[in-house]
């Protein structure tokens, strides 16, 4: 999957969160809960995914927009406690 992002936003994310946008390539999409981001009237469709990163047991949040053959990353961070709880509830409700 192709992953695009703004290099300046990526640099800020590295400085503030120690999470490069390149790491989104390690997201385990099979664990993802993806919802549309409808908080604002964006010029393109946006989605928020909660999923595990690589072999970690830590949930991460990635906001993205679909592009041809992949995604463009808008934001990427570790999930907070509220988001972890919401994710767990969502997974349990899917069973």
TrEMBL record:
One Pfam family, short name: BrnT_toxin
Tree of life domain: Bacteria
InterPro entries with a match to the protein in the record: BrnT_sf, BrnT_toxin
Name of this protein: Toxin-antitoxin system, toxin component
Organism: Neisseria meningitidis serogroup B (strain ATCC 13091 / M2091)
């Amino acid at each position: 999957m192709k992953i695009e992002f703004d290099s300046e936003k990526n640099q800020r994310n590295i400085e503030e969160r120690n999470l490069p946008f390149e790491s989104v390539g390690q997201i385990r999409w099979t664990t993802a809960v993806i919802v549309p981001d409808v908080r604002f009237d964006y010029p393109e469709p946006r989605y928020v995914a909660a999923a595990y990163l690589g072999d970690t047991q830590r949930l991460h949040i990635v906001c993205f927009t679909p592009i041809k053959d992949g995604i463009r990353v808008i934001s990427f961070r570790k999930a907070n406690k509220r988001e972890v709880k919401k994710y767990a509830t969502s997974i349990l409700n899917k069973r």
